[in-house]
Specification:
The complex is a heterodimer of chains A (255) and B (442). Helices cover 39% and strands 28% of the residues of chain A. The longest helix of chain A has 15 residues. Chain B is an alpha/beta fold. In chain B, the strands form two sheets. In chain B, strands 2-1-5-8-10-12-14-16-18-20 form a ten-stranded mixed sheet, with helices on one face. In chain B, strands 3, 4, 6, 7, 9, 11, 13, 15, 17 and 19 form a ten-stranded mixed sheet that branches. In chain B, a hairpin with a 2-residue loop joins strand 1 and strand 2. The radius of gyration of chain B is 21 Å and the shape is globular. The mean pLDDT of chain B is 92. Classes of the chains: A alpha/beta (255), B alpha/beta (442). At the A-B interface, helix 2, strand 6, strand 7 and helix 3 of A face helix 7 and helix 8 of B.
């Protein structure tokens, strides 16, 4: 699905990612864990095409194409979805209007007919039920006045509507109480299948009790320092991150 | 004041005087009527002041030099072809048509009205029942006199007279298309509205200004609205004249006790637009809402000057003006709120928000509060911002292309003004007008 090779990325002249290598195959769920400031969100944003980040070295191949040469909207149209850590509020645009514009842009790109109002509404109802989304949230402006949990749920609802091939979930678990976490995780699990792939970016192991990953990577100081099975997450939960720090000596840590 | 300004002013005054004399000669027989005395006083007042200059506080940011040199023709009002493709929203009923400032019976479709309601050509009212117009003047005791209002009065020949008797509800909006026909040379047009709404009555007016493209004409519009006790009135003004035209509008309302007036001014067209709006809350418990939306593209200038006069206690006023400025356009917002000594328990809220889309666009915004009562609530705020890169990115990550994402955010910014317009057909029409304007700007 996606192959990341020696990816370096910088913002405002400061390099954050110092050479990431990561391969995700169709049908897999990978988790990236790491302490604050390790570059997890940067990786997620770079994959989605945030222009504020400069990719200074390396390559990303997505379904055989050079991902880094694509605009954010092209990436989305080709099936990449980023669930934001901090979903953006957009006053003045209703959630459904926004989703209809998004869905039809993607369908158009894929050579499918745009959905008419009736078909769209039917799909919304179906997916909203899946995500246990309150109907009132659908007609409110995008994320405006939503609680933290509602915003995260709305991200996964959008994912359900847009049916991405590769979903990158950036700390979708943070700030959720246990009930909201369970609902969001169940939603993700329902969307998980052998034709798509998911990259979970998370700070805590907690989410991985509900969405069980195939591979866990640890990101520290802009590098993947260890990869393993789901048991690696439990080990991190128990021991924290510092024991991994002793395993490697990045030049940046010296100064 | 510099010598050139003074001499320009003198030449201008001389030219307008001679134009007025010519106009007078064309009036045959009307010059004995009381209204003509008003015209004479008005031209004298205008000749004294001339076009305002940027030395005057009220016109500091709006330079009228481009207009001052134009020798305008004064075409006969009400005559001329209605230009094609004015883009009037299809969701609105057909209505009255004013061409070159005059009522055009051939193009107008008078709405079905309850008994006692009058919609008539102003020329006809001035000829047959001039007392009705005089009555209007005496009831309004007009505030907000300015040189252009004076010029408008001096050259008033036609327009529209709308009178709704007490206890009458007019359903559906009265649409007034105010069109500039194609002109061979720059024309000075004076569409004038007198609106009088009786106690406890209700009426909605929509005035749309449009015109044939490619002309440097000046529309000098005047609209006076007298609102009786307990009446509910809306007046929405859409300015979508071609990009070469100049547009100066004076809107004045005076409200009775417990009445409600809501007006939205939308400016999408013209090279230079100035709206001067004066709302007088002249009865206890009256409420006025003045909203506005201005979209500056190319090199246009859009100036909104509002004044809300809280003359009586327990009145509320709400004001929301939003501006979108692209290209090299320039916006001006000046919001004056007077609270007179006796106007206790006044509640006035004013907001001006601007979205600047280019480095070359600019806005001058200024609240101006004059409060003489001591038990009042007055708030005001102004913001100037740009499109959020984060919001654009969010939309793009959902597959919406960059241009569409930008348009969507701009429309979203404008939506709280548009959503308050009570006519779905007009709201839909505005959405597509804004969309078209932004498309051209890309």
């Amino acid at each position: 699905m996606i192959e990341i090779r020696n990816l370096h990325a910088a913002i405002d002249g400061t390099e954050i990612l110092h050479g990431i290598d990561l391969t995700i195959r169709t049908g897999e769920v990978h988790a990236i864990m790491g302490p604050n400031g390790s570059g997890k969100s940067t990786l997620a944003q770079v994959l989605a095409g945030r222009e504020a980040y400069d990719v200074t070295e390396g390559s990303v191949t997505y379904q055989g194409h050079d991902l880094l040469g694509m605009k954010p909207e092209e990436r989305a149209q080709e099936g990449i979805f980023l669930a934001f850590q901090y979903p953006i509020e957009i006053p003045g645009i209703s959630n459904t209007y926004f989703l209809k514009a998004a869905l039809n842009a993607i369908r158009k790109h894929r050579g499918m007919e745009e959905l008419d109002a009736m078909e769209f509404l039917k799909l919304v109802k179906q997916k909203a039920a899946l995500m246990e989304m309150d109907d009132s949230l659908l007609n409110r402006p995008v994320n405006q006045g939503f609680s933290g949990g509602e915003k995260k749920r709305n991200e996964i609802f959008q994912m359900a509507m847009l049916e991405p091939k590769l979903a990158v979930l950036d700390e979708t678990d943070s700030g959720l109480d246990i009930d909201a976490l369970r609902t969001v995780a169940e939603g993700v699990n329902r969307l998980r299948n052998d034709r798509n792939a998911i990259l979970l970016v998370t700070h805590y192991q907690r989410l991985l009790n509900y969405i069980v990953p195939d591979v866990v990577h640890v990101l520290m100081d802009g590098r993947i320092v260890r990869s393993g099975g789901k048991e690696l997450a439990l080990e991190l939960e128990e021991k924290g991150y510092d024991w991994l720090r002793e395993d490697y000596h990045p030049s940046e840590a010296a100064h | 004041m510099s010598g050139t300004t003074a001499s320009l002013r003198d030449r201008q005054a001389a030219w307008f005087r001679s134009a007025f004399e010519e106009f007078e000669r064309s009036l045959n027989g009307e010059t004995g009527r009381p209204f003509h005395q008003r015209r004479r006083e008005a031209i004298a007042a205008f000749a004294d002041s001339g076009f305002p200059t940027t030395h005057e506080e009220e016109w500091r940011f709006t330079d009228l030099t481009p207009l001052a040199g134009i020798r305008f023709a004064l075409p006969a009002p009400g005559v001329g072809e209605l230009p094609e493709g004015l883009g009037i929203p299809s969701g609105l009923p057909k209505g009255i048509v004013l061409i070159n400032g005059g009522f055009s019976p051939a193009h107008s479709r008078l709405p079905q009205l309850p008994p006692g309601c009058r919609i008539e050509s102003l020329a006809q009212v001035l000829a047959r029942t001039p007392g009705d117009v005089e009555d209007h003047f005496s009831r309004t005791a007009i505030q907000g006199e300015n040189p252009f209002a004076a010029l408008g009065t001096a050259f008033t020949r036609d327009g529209l007279f709308v009178s709704i008797p007490p206890n009458t509800v007019v359903t559906g909006p009265i649409v007034i298309l105010t069109a500039a026909a194609g002109q061979t040379s720059p024309a000075l047009l004076h569409p004038r509205l007198f609106v009088s709404v009786g106690d406890n009555s209700q009426v909605s007016l929509i005035q749309i200004f449009a015109g044939a493209p490619g002309q440097q004409s000046l529309t000098n519009a005047l609209c006076d609205i007298v609102i009786g006790d307990g009446a509910v009135v809306t007046y929405d003004k859409i300015q979508k004249e071609p990009p070469e035209m100049y547009h100066i509008a004076t809107i004045r309302s005076r409200q009775g006790r417990s009445s409600t007036f809501a007006s939205t001014s939308v400016t999408l067209g013209g090279a230079l637009t100035r709206n001067t709006i004066t709302a007088v809350l002249d009865g206890d418990g009256a409420e006025a809402t003045l909203n506005g939306l201005y979209l500056g593209t190319g090199g246009r200038l859009i100036d909104n000057h509002t004044a809300i006069d809280h003359a009586k206690p327990h009145c509320n006023s709400y004001e929301l003006y939003k501006g979108i400025l692209a290209g090299r356009s320039r916006g001006v917002f000046n919001g004056k709120i007077f609270v007179r000594k006796d106007a206790q328990k006044t509640d006035a809220k004013q907001t001006n928000k601007n979205l600047i889309l280019s480095d070359d666009a600019a806005i001058d915004t200024k609240p101006q509060l004059e409060i003489y009562a001591n038990d009042v609530k007055c708030t005001h705020g102004a913001t100037i911002g740009q499109l959020e890169e984060e919001s654009l990115f969010y939309l793009r990550t959902r597959g919406i292309n960059a241009d569409d994402a930008r348009d969507l955010l701009i429309y979203a910014f404008a939506s709280d003004v548009i959503d308050r317009i009570p006519h779905p057909g007009l709201r839909a029409g505005l959405q597509s007008m804004i969309h078209d304007a932004l498309q051209k700007e890309r």
